[in-house]
Amino acid sequence: MGEAGKRLRRVVNELRTIIKPGITTNLIDKTAENLIIKYGGKPSFKEVDGYKWTTCLPINEQIVHTPPTDRIILNGDLLTLDIGFYYKKYHTDFATSFIVGDRKDQKTIDFLEIGKKAIDKAIKQVKIGNYIGNISETIQKTVESAGYNVSETLVGHGIGHTLHEDPMVPGILEGRISNTPKIEKGLVIAVEVIYMMGARAVEIEKNSKWSIKTADNSLSACFEHTIAVADNEAIILT
């Protein structure tokens, strides 16, 4: 999985160089598939039943699971790049959100900085002796203290031979931390900060089977890393 993660990072780094205003999300997706194959893997997302694409590419109010289309990305759009790399029967999963082009609104920049801060803090909670609830609490406190909301229905997850495994890794703590799964050596999870500027309600986008958007059309973003639990530290595989 570590090797898969390294190869996925190479894919993402090369992909970022072509993402500019005027490009379609379909072109990003096709390029992503070619790069994954070039680096000896397969698209993880195509292993999901019914999903035919390599990436999910939400824009602005779209939050997760948005398939690529002929939609053209505009200068100043907030794009989430969500991508997985399947290698020797193991998956890795990664997502990042960023502004495309040079029209960078300060409000959006501040919003994205909180997501980066939240995932960095959350990863520090991935250690033996802690609970999944420590991760959830950290994400929730970091995001909500900045005036934003975390999705309560869209969560991180275990990952390995299949893309989505137990345990779920919510971004919101419900109940006592000690009632959530304990983090043990060997656990591998995809930690996700899925959040929005406005209300936390989400809905399936009209005329789409997959794409989920914010109900109030507020901006949303997602930051995700695949993390492995070792003896004394969390290893960021992606």
Number of strands: 13
Main pleated-sheet profile: 6 strands, antiparallel
Low-confidence stretches: none
Provide the β-strand percentage band.
25-35%
Total helix count? 4
Q: What spatial form do the alpha-carbon principal axes imply?
A: globular
- CATH uppermost class: Alpha Beta
Sheet/helix structural class: alpha+beta
CATH-scheme architecture = Alpha-Beta Complex
CATH fold title: Creatine Amidinohydrolase
Radius of gyration: 17 Å
The H-level CATH homologous superfamily, spelled out, is Creatinase/methionine aminopeptidase superfamily
What is the averaged pLDDT score?
Answer: 96
> How many distinct domains?
1
Structure commentary:
The chain is of the alpha+beta class and 238 residues long. The protein has helices at residues 2-16, 25-38, 106-124, 132-144; strands spanning 42-43, 55-56, 62-64, 78-87, 90-99, 149-150, 156-158, 165-169, 188-196, 202-204, 212-214, 220-229, 234-236. A hairpin with a 4-residue loop joins strand 12 and strand 13. The chain starts with a helix and ends with a strand. The model has no long low-confidence stretch (mean pLDDT 96). The longest helix is centred in the middle third of the chain and has 19 residues, at 106-124. Helix 1 (2-16) crosses helix 2. The protein has one domain: Creatinase/methionine aminopeptidase superfamily (Creatine Amidinohydrolase, Alpha-Beta Complex). The radius of gyration is 17 Å and the shape is globular. It is built from four helices and 13 strands. The strands form three sheets. Strands 6, 7, 8, 9, 12 and 13 form a six-stranded antiparallel beta sheet that branches. Strands 1, 2, 4 and 5 form a four-stranded antiparallel beta sheet that branches. It has a three-stranded antiparallel beta sheet with strand order 3-11-10, with no helix packed on it.
